[in-house]
């Protein structure tokens, strides 16, 4: 039995999330023109295979050196002067498409002494979802994926759902809430 | 080898509504059917963006002063603190808020039910908590509104809140409700929260002491995000396996 820590319960963003959240619609983790930066684009898709037009995708990641501008990082916070934000928010459009403009983060020291492969943490919310779901984006062809502690706990048949594939202007990462290709989601 | 010592955020999965809540019909195609994998809290999870200070304007927390004239409706103050479940305040964190107008209508292209729009009300606000986690909004009390979930379905009056907290683990979007709303009993979104105590935590309290005479009723509402365990995750650097 889990004890109740007394937190405030989650509720859905509802159908009108865009009025409250679109002001911060900003897909740029790094400024336009940043050398080596690329788009990660994808669809958000429901269990009927229909794109979700009233959803939101937010990402959070380390910088290319694997560092954060955050006081709880025991290695120290790295203050930003280069416009790197680590965060992006993309409201899905009428076709269910979202995208973030970013750079590949560095690898990270893991709790067990190992190494986390480069990844983005992803929050997905939408009308019809009573709480967020969380997933991670890894990068195809990155040798470090094999030893990643989180990716290795995912059923091998589903790991591909967490790996962004090369595309014209960066990477492709579709998010399936249900169905045969349901994305692997994490309890965080 | 050095172990990382990181804050570890308490899990509170049981507090939140199940993603699969059949009474809320639009959840049917939008919940993962396969089990979630437990994600240990590493550096990405215990950090998060510090948003708001640059973007939030001084009047963004006053929804009654965004237009030429004041909106129609009962002027209210919504105030409180953002805390974690250990009782620590969460300072300097962004809060976003959106709501329907006094007639229960959102300023959104897809809200088409025949209640009037108010030219003086957008229904959107934001603020950043102060050094003690406090926030304050001035707005008008939103109206209830119908929706098509079931026969004669009405959403209780509510304000949508979005919070970032200090870490990715603390991200929360919720709704604040008003005391003793007669519509609670038929609302599958409110009732999706399994524990009655959890439901109570989404309801603000009328606060006579903070009510401003001859100006505005005040409702107080504390928002509680996940706290961290008091003990570190890993202790001794030299105690390697
Ligand atoms: Fe609503």
Automatic annotation (TrEMBL), chain A:
The keyword Transcription does not apply. Keywords: Dioxygenase, Oxidoreductase. The keyword ATP-binding does not apply. Residues 38-179 form the Intradiol ring-cleavage dioxygenases domain. PANTHER family: DIOXYGENASE, PUTATIVE (AFU_ORTHOLOGUE AFUA_2G02910)-RELATED, PROTOCATECHUATE 3,4-DIOXYGENASE ALPHA CHAIN. Belongs to the intradiol ring-cleavage dioxygenase family. This is Protocatechuate 3,4-dioxygenase subunit alpha. It comes from Fodinicola feengrottensis.
Automatic annotation (TrEMBL), chain B:
InterPro entries: Intradiol_dOase_C, Intradiol_dOase_core, Intradiol_RC_Dioxygenase, PCDO_beta_N, Protocat_dOase_b. The keyword Oxidoreductase applies. Signal peptide: none annotated. The keyword Oxidoreductase applies. Residues 78-106 form the Intradiol ring-cleavage dioxygenases domain. SUPFAM superfamilies: Aromatic compound dioxygenase. Keywords: Dioxygenase, Oxidoreductase. Belongs to the intradiol ring-cleavage dioxygenase family. This is Protocatechuate 3,4-dioxygenase subunit beta. It comes from Fodinicola feengrottensis.
